[in-house]
Write a structure and sequence with these properties.
With 283 residues, the protein is mainly beta. 11% of the residues lie in helices and 46% in strands. The strands form five sheets. Strands 5, 6, 7, 8 and 9 form a five-stranded antiparallel sheet that branches. A four-stranded antiparallel sheet has the order 1-2-3-4. A four-stranded antiparallel sheet has the order 10-11-12-13, with no helix packed on it. A hairpin with a 5-residue loop joins strand 1 and strand 2.
């Protein structure tokens, strides 16, 4: 009797293993709810989105308890790659960003990676040969429940290379930091205290915009101050961070900040809209 049952037990174990593998593969294919897809041209990553929803990080800074456990991309050759994080971290983000940070003609992926025990880090991934790999990462903030929000990816110094501007801990005395990808990893170029680019619990991340506010030919960054009661224009021309000026808002900034021509517009509390000209920052 035991001998007859052995093949049945082996088959059951095989089927259970196959079911587990199938479930894991299906989970890796599942997209992050409300997550978007980033697209770019060039020879690197051309499409990216977050996958593998997970509730293993109980922070909820973006309004729910679901974060991403993986990142799916498509390269310029049409190949799909999926990078899964280990259980100690998640992507605490909504849509990845694509930009050519190293100037090789192909986009890298810029993401917010949050460690369950150490908080958020700015992370960069990209193609190296035929493989999609982790390239560089800042040190995590150092405590759980501490988050950062990218503000812009642009040539903010005027030297022709892209930098990544973030606001570290935007809800508690946020610090604006500007980072650049170099051969040895990510290096910080500048930092200024007193900024915010997110309302806790909100799914809106774009509380910053880029434009040449001071007319020197170099892109400047416009984002709210720490209380979100004013917009602040910051220049990093030449690699040094300096405030150009401030423009008070009639209500707190709670939504998207955008630039059209020489005017900055922001979504304010109470359904209001605040609009100022570049000249307001120079007065």
């Amino acid at each position: 009797m035991t001998r007859r049952l052995a093949p049945v037990a082996a088959l059951a174990a095989l089927l259970a293993g196959a079911a587990t593998v199938y479930a894991q593969a299906a989970h890796a294919q599942a997209r992050l709810p409300d997550g978007g897809t980033a697209r770019a041209g060039g020879s690197g990553v051309v499409e990216a989105h977050y996958v593998a929803p997970t509730a293993r990080y109980a922070h909820g800074v973006l309004g729910d308890a679901i974060e991403a456990g993986g990142l799916a991309v498509r390269d310029a050759a049409g190949r799909r790659h999926v990078l899964m994080l280990s259980g100690d971290s998640v992507f605490e983000d909504i849509t990845p960003r694509l930009a050519d940070l190293d100037g090789d003609g192909g986009a890298e992926v810029i993401a917010v990676r949050s460690y369950l025990a150490r908080g958020s880090a700015l992370a960069v991934y990209g193609m190296r040969g035929d493989a999609f790999v982790h390239i560089a990462e800042t040190a995590p903030i150092g405590r759980p429940g501490r988050w950062l929000n990218p503000a812009a990816i642009a040539d903010l110094t005027g030297d022709g290379r892209l930098e990544v501007a973030i606001v570290r801990t935007p809800h508690i005395g946020g610090r604006l930091e500007v980072w650049r990808l170099r051969a040895g990893g990510l290096s910080r170029l500048a930092a200024l205290d007193g900024f915010s680019n997110h309302v806790i619990g909100s799914r809106t991340l774009g509380l910053a915009a880029v434009g040449d506010v001071d007319g020197d030919g170099v892109a400047d960054l416009v984002l709210p101050d720490a209380r979100r009661t004013a917009l602040v224009a910051v220049t990093l021309a030449g690699g040094r961070a300096r405030i150009i000026g401030r423009a008070a808002m009639p209500a707190p900034v709670v939504g998207t900040v955008s630039i059209s021509g020489e005017r900055v517009s922001a979504s304010l509390a109470g359904g209001r809209r605040g609009t100022v000209s570049f000249a307001a920052f120079r007065d």
